[in-house]
């Protein structure tokens, strides 16, 4: 995997938006200078009090520096917020685009929690830090110019100030590696906390009815939250120590001006008030800079996390992108889909093959109705993912008629399918079906016997609080609307009542076949095998054709966990 070199927030913002321009940096500097000017004018006006009071020029300069300060600071803060939001929007949209074009297996291995954490939490943290960062930059310029002003009053005082500020900076830089290591660990622990919270919410029903489970899950969450607290507290203590030291340096600075400089320079006494005022003036801005230090370190870690996620996605996309814009070829008129020596293995984290499917040699003919049976974990869903090209085989090829499926035509191939997997997702809108007529949708809702529960109004279904079986029927409505050449149903009938189950097998599936569709159904309902043209059985990742049971009331096939039952005696 190509891990890009680490970048800071400014490089990140520039990479994402190309909007960091000279005007922004110039006005950041101008606002710092204008703020320093405010001090110089006020000090000069205080001086003038001794000789009859400030003149109209003092007043003019005061007005000018305030106007300049307000204009430039407003521009910098507005613009930095706008740039940060644009950067975040751009990175979110790009990552979402890479995710949708990515490979299912790669996404499964990255995990939804990691993706959620990066795209929501981490990007928000970056956006929140951009404006304070520019504010701190403005403060830094202001401090620099205030030091320049101090130099005009007493060069020795300026050197003393620089020495003490450099001391503070050295203390921070000395511990920088420690901060970043601490923040890295804290980010990893926060990801675990995120996973734990997801479990708490997703498993709410299970933990609500089981006290021991609830206590255990909560205990895990509390333990992880405690670890996050400990790591973050350690890092924040480091920061806090340094902030205290830096603040102490500032007070020391004031002390040095009052107690040390008059000893070193006899002519200094008269200027002491001006210099003390200047130092007090940059107390606040220096605070801005100091508090920004941990934020910058945190954001660097966050940006590195985002880069790592993007590098993983890029890794998978590398092989596919050159074909990204290949035109979609209409394959609906295919005669057969052939698997030649297809082989696929899940890998464990060390790269060793875990569960394997194949070699699979098999031909599906156009318009055929195929049932896929097999015990739990025998590989049926994995085969469907290979069949629909969601997984890439490690060996072997898929051919549509004589055309081999590869990167250039894989999307055209996938476009043949409408699939309902057992972990299907129902979108709240009919995406990709903008032209679907509401009358047709309501007709399908009737066909699936859920029109009494939900109707289609203004682009949405009126009710989505449906039972599991009803949700599957709604998924069937969407699938029908997609009107694809090949239908793949992974245990769609599993949660249906006997009446609808019968209707599904004896009416809906034969209707699809009559309409010229090719249908592949994963089923444990062996009493309906007679509906299929062929029955195929998965057994520990291997596929074989088995005789159909033509008598719906014949004794059932029995599957034990991980094994498929032998073909039933007397079956065809
Ligand atoms: N993403 C994954 N990573 C690693 N192993 C996986 C993954 N998905 C499934 N497996 C493993 O592959 C094997 C086959 O799983 P699959 O879901 O294909 O079985 P199945 O026949 O559809 O089972 P069921 O009837 O229970 O739905 C199982 O042992 C499972 O643990």
UniProtKB/TrEMBL annotation:
**Protein topology in the membrane:** Multi-pass membrane protein
Residue spans of biased composition, Basic and acidic residues class: 547-556
Q: Which UniProt keywords apply?
A: ATP-binding, Coiled coil, Membrane, Nucleotide-binding, Transmembrane, Transmembrane helix
Q: Which residues form the ABC transporter domain?
A: 337-565
Q: What are the BP-aspect GO terms?
A: peptide transport
Positions of the ABC transmembrane type-1 domain: 24-298
Can you quote a single GO CC term?
Answer: plasma membrane
Q: Which GO terms describe its molecular function?
A: ABC-type transporter activity; ATP binding; ATP hydrolysis activity; ATPase-coupled lipid transmembrane transporter activity; peptide transmembrane transporter activity
Residue spans making up a coiled coil are: 299-326
What the entry lists under InterPro entries is as follows: AAA+_ATPase, ABC1_TM_dom, ABC1_TM_sf, ABC_transporter-like_ATP-bd, Cyc_pep_transpt_SyrD/YojI, P-loop_NTPase, Type_1_exporter
What is the name attached to this protein's record? Putative ATP-binding cassette transporter
Query: Where, per UniProt, does this protein localize?
Result: Cell membrane
């Amino acid at each position: 995997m190509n891990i890009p070199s680490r970048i800071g927030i400014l490089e990140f913002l520039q990479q994402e938006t190309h909007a960091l321009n000279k005007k922004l940096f110039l006005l950041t500097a101008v606002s710092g200078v204008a703020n320093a000017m405010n001090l110089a004018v006020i000090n000069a006006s205080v001086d003038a009090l001794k000789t009859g009071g400030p003149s109209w020029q003092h007043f003019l300069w005061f007005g000018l520096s305030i106007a300049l300060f307000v204009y430039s600071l407003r521009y910098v803060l507005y613009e930095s917020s706008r740039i940060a939001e644009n950067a975040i929007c751009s990175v979110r949209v790009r990552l979402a685009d890479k995710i949708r074009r990515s490979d299912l297996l790669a996404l499964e291995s990255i995990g939804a929690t990691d993706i959620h954490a990066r795209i929501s939490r981490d990007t928000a943290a970056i956006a929140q830090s951009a404006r304070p960062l520019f504010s701190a930059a403005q403060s830094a310029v202001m401090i620099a110019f205030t030091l320049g002003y101090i130099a005009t009053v007493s060069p020795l005082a300026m050197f003393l100030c620089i020495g003490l500020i450099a001391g503070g900076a050295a203390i921070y830089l000395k511990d920088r590696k420690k901060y970043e290591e601490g923040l890295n660990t804290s980010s990893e622990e926060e990801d675990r906390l995120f996973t734990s919270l997801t479990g708490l919410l997703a498993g709410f029903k299970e933990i609500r009815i089981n006290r021991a489970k609830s206590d255990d899950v909560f205990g895990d969450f509390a333990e992880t939250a405690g670890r996050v607290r400990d790591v973050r507290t350690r890092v924040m203590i480091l920061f806090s120590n340094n902030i205290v030291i830096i603040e102490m340096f500032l007070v020391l600075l004031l002390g040095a001006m009052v107690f040390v400089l008059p000893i070193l320079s006899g002519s200094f006494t008269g200027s002491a008030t001006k210099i003390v005022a200047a130092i007090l003036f940059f107390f606040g801005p220096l605070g801005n800079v100091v508090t920004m230090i941990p934020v910058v370190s945190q954001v660097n870690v966050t940006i590195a996390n985002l880069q790592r996620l993007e590098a993983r996605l890029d890794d998978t996309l590398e092989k596919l992108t050159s074909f990204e814009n290949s035109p979609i070829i209409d394959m609906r008129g295919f005669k057969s889909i052939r698997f030649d020596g297809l082989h696929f293995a899940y890998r464990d984290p060390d790269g060793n093959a875990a569960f394997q499917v194949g070699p699979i040699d098999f031909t599906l003919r156009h318009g055929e109705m195929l049932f896929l049976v097999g015990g739990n974990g025998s590989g049926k869903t994995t085969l469907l993912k290979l069949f629909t090209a969601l997984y890439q085989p490690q060996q072997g090829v898929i051919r549509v008629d004589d055309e081999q499926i590869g990167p250039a035509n894989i999307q055209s191939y996938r476009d043949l399918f409408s699939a309902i997997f057992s972990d299907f997702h129902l979108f709240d809108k009919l995406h990709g079906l903008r032209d679907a007529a509401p009358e047709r949708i309501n007709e399908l809702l009737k066909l699936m016997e859920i029109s009494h529960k939900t109707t289609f109004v203004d682009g949405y279904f009126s009710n989505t609080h449906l039972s599991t079986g009803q949700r599957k029927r709604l998924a069937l409505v969407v699938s029908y609307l997609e009107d694809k050449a090949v239908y793949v149903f992974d245990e769609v009938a599993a949660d249906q009542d006997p009446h609808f189950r019968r209707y599904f097998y004896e009416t809906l599936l034969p209707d699809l076949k009559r309409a010229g569709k090719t249908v592949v159904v994963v089923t444990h309902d062996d009493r309906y095998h007679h509906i299929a043209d062929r029955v195929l059985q998965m057994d520990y990742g291997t596929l074989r054709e088995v005789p159909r049971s033509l008598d719906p009331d014949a004794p059932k096939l029995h599957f034990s966990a991980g094994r498929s039952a032998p073909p039933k005696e007397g079956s065809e």
